[in-house]
Design a protein that fits this description.
The structure is a single chain. The chain has about 325 residues and is mainly alpha-helical. Helix content is about 70%, strand content about 0%. It folds into two domains: about 70 residues; about 240 residues, MetI-like (MetI-like fold). Helix 3 packs across helix 8 and helix 12 runs antiparallel to helix 13. The two termini are about 55 Å apart.
Length: about 325
């Protein structure tokens, strides 16, 4: 059967059915548009609290601090515009450069040590020992408490002159020292505290290890490889995306460390500014000396530093991170 269309052309039945179906779909779609619009409005209503919170608690404060970074502001008088004056002042601030040196030392030493320790513990737990859930909880607990004031106070007592560390050293005939009050060891105690909070990256490593197929290890073992060869040629390459993820997170968090150094040093960054982190110096300038404009400039400088290190990590990841396509 054929249907004669406009201009006397013949229309095949199959094409007629297709045209009728498309017409029905367009009509039904047109009727569904109001429903879709209502659903979109409902979605925006549910998202509105989050949007307001994001704008009010993130966007507006960031924009305000960016403006204040170009002003002289002491929280009492109105801010006065000084342009790049705060950033020029930072170039000649010796304590600021010392705080950067302390912060970089802390980040460069503590982050790799923490990741290595977390990976070692994760590989140990990956062997399927008894009470695995209990050990996971115990090892994760320091990550929950590591940034708290209570643990920082406890850490100060542990490494104090009469602390547990010196008491243990006296038992084996070694005379201890004031680890926290000695400029040569104060930063090391805070680095050790950061390494101790390895629970979060450990759990991520453990989840990554569980995703590596066992057939790779079985095939390598049949080829006569040892444990070290399997670790460097199978585990590390396949785990490299997880290592990269943990590295970026811990790097950003370490640059922002504040509580541990503040409590351990008593809020002074001492002794001799050996634990004066960049964030602590920013806090002193902004809230102790009320130089909020200068502190805002320091905050944006820290944003640029963290952004630069993160970008470098992403660029370098092309050479050592392997994705299983």
């Amino acid at each position: 059967m054929e249907v004669i269309g406009d201009h006397g052309r013949l229309i095949q039945p199959e094409k007629l059915v297709t045209a009728i179906s498309e017409l029905k779909s367009s009509v039904q779609g047109g009727g569904a548009k109001p429903t879709a619009r209502r659903e979109s409005k409902a979605a925006y209503v549910f998202l509105l609290p989050w949007i307001l919170g994001f704008v009010g608690l993130a966007v507006v404060p960031m924009a305000t601090s960016l403006y204040l970074s170009f002003t002289k502001y002491n929280l009492i008088q109105s801010p006065s515009w000084i342009g790049l004056g705060n950033f020029q002042r930072m170039l000649h601030d010796d304590r600021l450069w010392n705080s950067l040196r302390v912060t970089f030392t802390y980040v460069i030493v503590s982050v790799p040590l923490q990741l290595v320790f977390a990976l070692a513990v994760a590989m140990l737990l990956d062997r399927g020992m008894r009470g695995l859930a209990f050990y996971r909880s115990i090892f994760y607990l320091p990550s929950l408490l590591g940034s708290s004031v209570a643990v920082a106070i406890l850490w100060r007592q542990v490494f104090g002159t009469d602390g547990i560390v010196n008491q243990l050293l006296q038992m084996i005939g070694i005379e201890g020292r004031g680890w926290v009050s000695d400029p040569s060891t104060a930063l090391g105690t805070i680095i050790l505290l950061h390494v101790w909070t390895f629970g979060a990256p450990m759990l991520i490593f453990l989840a990554g290890l569980r995703q590596i197929p066992t057939m790779y290890y079985e095939a390598a073992q049949m080829d006569g490889t040892n444990r070290f060869q399997r670790f460097f040629h199978i585990t590390l390459p396949l785990l490299s995306p997880i290592i990269f993820f943990n590295l970026v997170l811990q790097l950003i968090g370490s640059f922002q460390s504040f509580t541990q150094a503040f409590i351990v040093s008593g809020g002074t960054g001492g002794p001799a500014d050996s634990t004066m982190f960049y964030t602590m110096y920013l806090y002193q300038k902004g809230f102790a000396e009320l130089q909020m404009g200068y502190a805002s400039a320091m905050a944006w400088a820290l944003v640029l530093i963290i952004g630069a290190f993160t970008a470098l990590n992403f660029l370098a990841s092309k050479w050592w991170v392997f994705y299983d396509d």
